[in-house]
Structure formats: C-alpha cells, structure tokens
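Predict structure. Chain length: 396.
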Amino acid sequence: MNYILFEDSLTRAQLLPLTFVRPIAEIRIGLLTIREKWEKFLKEPTSILTENYLSAKYPIHKQGNNILINSAVIPNAQLVKKILKLNPNEAIVDKDSIVAMHITADDLDKVGDGSSEGIEEIMDCPEHVKLNFPWEIFNFNPQAIVDDYNLLVATRKSQEISPTNRVTNADQVFLDKGASVEHAYINASEGPVYIGRNAVIMEGAMLRGPLAIMDHATIKMGAKIYGGTTIGPHCKVGGEVSNSVFFAYSNKAHDGFVGHSVIAEWCNLGADTNTSDLKNTYDAIRIWSYKEQTFINTCQQFVGLIMGDHSKCGINTMFNSGTVVGVSANIFGPGFQRNFIPSFSWGGPSGIQEYKLDKALQVAETVYKRRNVEMTNIDKDILTYIHQITRSYRKL
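Prediction complete.
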C-alpha cells in the first residue's frame, strides 16, 4: 500500500511559523518527527502532500491505491490497526475532520484539504492526539517521549552506563551506540531518558526524564535539562531548559533559561538568552496567530518562545512570555523583545528593519557548511519564497 501524509490549510496556518519551511509531518515531538512515527508504525515509507513551494523538497509519490493520513495526527496502535483495514473509498473521520482515507490515484488529484469527495463509507475514529497549535508540541511532548521511547527501545539493548555517572532508575535510561556520558547526573524516576547515537553529555550535566537527547546532540558542562524536553539531532544545548523542544541543528550553548518553548532548525540563542514562560499575574498567555492575524488567548499559563527556522539572537536577549519569532530573524538589543517578530527582521526593541534576503541566504549557507551540510538551491528557493510572502508582516 502507498501511504501519503496530507495536511489541511487550517492546521498548517495555526502551526506557523514552524510550518513555513516544512510540512506538518516533519515537526518533531517526542523522539521522532510525526512522519518518522507513522513509518515506524506502518513499517512502510511515506510521502507528503503539502504546499506547492515545498513539494520539490517533499515530493508526493502516487500509486493506483493510496491511503491518505492527516499529518497532524499522532499515530497509535489502535488507530493504525483501523487504517490498515480501510477498503477503497472508505475514510476514518473525527467529527468533521478526515483522519485517513483510501482513494485511487484519479481521486487523489481531487483532494484539497482532506476533502471526502468520492468517499462512500465513513468510519468512526479511535481516540488519538492531533496537533493543532505550536504550544501543544511541548504540552504533548512528555507523553510523546514515553511513547517513542517504548517504540524504539523495546527490542534494543542500551550501551552500558559508565560508573562515573550518578543514575536513578537506570533501567529507564537508554544509551545508543557511540553516546558519550561521563560524570553526569541522570534521574529517570519520573520518565525515561533516551540518549541518541554519538550524543555527548559533558561533565556535571543534570538530566531529568522524560527526556530525549537525539543523535549527535551535545549537552554542555553543568547544563540543567528538565523533563518534557527534546534536544533534536545535532543540537548543542547548555544552561537551563525545561519542557521545550529543539527540532535539529540549533544551538543554545551557554547559560540562560528556555522553558515551554519550541525552537526550530538552524537557530542560535546567544549567551545568557532568557525566555519568560509565565506572567507575573499568572494570567493565560496570548500569542500571535498567523491564521487570525492578531494575538489569541492560548488558555495556557505557561508559554515561552516559538522560534522559526534560521532565526538568531544576540547575547543577553530577553524574550517575554508568548513571543513568536518568524523565519530568519536576527534579533539583538537591550530590554524585552517584541512579542511578535516577523520573518526576515533585523533589530530589536529600539527598532526593526528588513533583513536583506541576499545576506540572510549567505549566513544560512555559512551555517550549513559549519555542520557539513549542503544548502541546496531548493532550500534557497524556499527561503526566497518565504521572504516574499511575509513581506507585509515587516510593515506592522
């Protein structure tokens, strides 16, 4: 069977700026991206039906018979079992939202935002989690870490933990091949701790589960990493981090606090960057919504920073609770930053101007080279397109 992960425009808009450079399916939550979760459960590769400007990087693969799956839905065994039993022209629906449907290649061309055109039978949906807003990434993350941990380590054996470490509940700690962990404190009493392949945990680091530190990530000396946190592949993190998700290739290498936040790829937080994730009044936090074009009530007491890809901030940067930063912003200056910083912005509290596209692309390419990653023309085209479609926000 051919499996395609599709996304609806409503959910995609609600998850901006994190979906500017990626489909929803490539969002990391827990140990894995949503796409990786589905491929683990289905034991088959998937392709993605996404926006036209992303399709060159994430091409769709069509066959005579296809099962389309809503890419904002987190898989579980019961849901996958029901999807595998779908017959042609059958769909699984949750309220008015398509979760999965079995259609032919001819009907696939008619599919918009999960339209059920041509579907003859509607089936009820098992209980599941669906990602709708950025703050749900860190809200769902503790359980997602537990679920992914159980999925990945069930038939694998951990490396031996060095006796230089102080470990609580060692049977819930997994070290993949090549992971280096010495003179660290690891407490897995409240959830598992996963340390990925070739990850490095430096001396004095304090780790508390549920926690995921993915392949080639580095935790700096004396870091304090609290539960509910994911440090994605190739990230470098120090200081204090709580209940946050770093997608991949992003750095917070020095002291400073990041809590209840989502940091996308290729970001860099300067030394002593701090995020507020709680108001002094303990009120619910409002956050910028690209869909509503205004600030909306999250109904959450804890929300820190949502930072889009390629954005960076200088030393001693302060972010207020519920701050949203777009793609490829360069942020600096004393005082609290604005609560919404548009893509390709340059500056801070004293004023913002446009971050010129050619300079932004040059910096991005330099950063890629530092990690031995090639920045392709497709990557440059995606950033160029985002620069164009976000121009109006820089006039706010």
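Summary: The radius of gyration is 21 Å.
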